[in-house]
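Problem: given the chain below (103 residues), write out its structure.
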Amino acid sequence: MRATVVALVIMTTASCDSLTNQVCGELSGKRKQYADTLNEAYASHLHAEQVPCYPNYLQVNCLSAVSAKTLDSVELSARQFDWDEVLVYDQQKALIRGDIGSM
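Solution.
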């Protein structure tokens, strides 16, 4: 009985992970190129990636101090790639730009 319950829990967990991966997908195309370009250009200052399961949200994590002018530029250019929201987090992981209210 116990082995059956354990097997059921493992199967359910694996199914959820598989479903999440299928539904959420991975960043690709022009948006992936944009994020890769940002990460390369600002490697020591920030890291950009898609928010998991929110394909229209770009998350930018500041690795060091980043000027407001640079963040304005990142946000403006991100909008050109149809990102609906740009979430910017400081080095302490506090949200400093963007809105998570619709998540």
